[in-house]
Amino acid sequence: MKQAEELNEPLLELLTNHNLVMILGPGGVGKTTVSACLGVKAAAMGKDVRLLTIDPAKRLADALGIGRDVSEQNLGVPHASGTLTASTLDRNEALDRLISRKAGNDKEIRTIVNNRFYKHLSGTLAGVHEYVAIEEVEHLCEAGEQDLLIVDTPPSTEALSFLDAPRKLEAVLNEPVFKTAVNLYSTAGRFSLFGMKAAGMAFRAFSTLLGSAFLRELMEFLAAFKQMFKGFEETASLSAKRFGAPDTTIVLVTGPGPTGVEETWHLAGELQNRGLNLAMVIVNRLMPRFLEPCPDKDLRQELSSLFEQHTIGSTALTRLSKALSENQALLSSIAVTQRDTLKNLVEKLSCPVISLPETRDPNGSIGALYRLVQSAEEVVK
Ligand SMILES: Nc1ncnc2c1ncn2[C@@H]1O[C@H](COP(=O)(O)OP(=O)(O)OP(=O)(O)O)[C@@H](O)[C@H]1O
Ligand SMILES: [Mg+2]
């Protein structure tokens, strides 16, 4: 494998000077592929890398070509002095682990984990996935077993939902109806009749509708959750600090089309509003530049030299050279249009813009990912 110096400057800087790199972007643009590329490259540079994918579709396993789900495993990067450990976040397992870390004692853990609201909420509540992921990131950073943690964020209609998860959860738990009910219930005594009634006042509609056993279970869940809320708040504020720290940064991935460029511009602004560092934008799947179209006569000559004498007739040769010329013209015009669109983005952004080319098969092996990252180029004004 090539030496680290051969990688372009901004990418070298990214992988050398940060401990936490979060890969963000709209759905399907190549976040998982880029994360895997960066992980492979950083390991080749001698870093001990942890690659965490929060992608529920488990695309990382495909990208790395390991043919099965990644739970947690060390991947051999050929000739690398560093290591690459990949893991996929299993939401339910991670949520249970999180409860174990936050809850005070075994009884509290059991109360929560066996509670039917927990079981339901853990599967359905919007934002739980992102929140658990943030907790996991914080946990891994605290443990500090890697030089570099790369986080591949989940596909999402709102690319920033990962970063906003702690604030959102806080807002839900601060809903007055939750707060009042839980406070009344815990102050009056968990199993006292008065406690149930008091909580029921806040949840009147629910209590008449659902009965007291249901209400008790709900209150029990919320009360136990409340004990842990301080822990959640602490992590949320630690995460907020970590996300803004100088050794943490974000890479925005986008496609080369006008929609992707517009969205990237918008996301970059949103990151700035949140005081977060944007290291670079990676424009993935940029159409490579093609050679200038050559004159028809030359093309015919080149083509006929590829065939054994008499294996291709003159009409077929004409048709073939016409088709090739048309394809080349089309692909070249796409490449030119994409670069024109990108000029606009490069001019507006203050961070580097790096392109990765459209390739036939970027995923499926460590070598392919390495070749892809090695072909990164900075898009200049
Ligand atoms: N440079 C590239 N050239 C060709 N194909 C690519 C390239 N990068 C990614 N792809 C392909 O694009 C598809 C989507 O890539 P990937 O899964 O990395 O995107 P993603 O942003 O992680 O998607 P999601 O939002 O669903 O998580 C995959 O089939 C992948 O092989
Ligand atoms: Mg993905």
The description of the largest β-sheet is: 9 strands, mixed
Shape: elongated
Which structural class do you get from the secondary structure elements? alpha/beta
According to CATH, what is the class of one domain? Answer: Alpha Beta
CATH topology call of one domain: Rossmann fold
Task: Report the sheet-strand fraction.
Answer: 5-15%
Please compute the radius of gyration using only Cα atoms. Answer: 27 Å
Any idea what the CATH architecture of one domain is?
A: 3-Layer(aba) Sandwich
**Number of beta-strand segments:** 9
Report strand order across the widest sheet. 3-4-2-5-1-6-7-8-9
First-residue to last-residue Cα separation:
30 Å
Q: CATH homologous superfamily of one domain, by name?
A: P-loop containing nucleotide triphosphate hydrolases
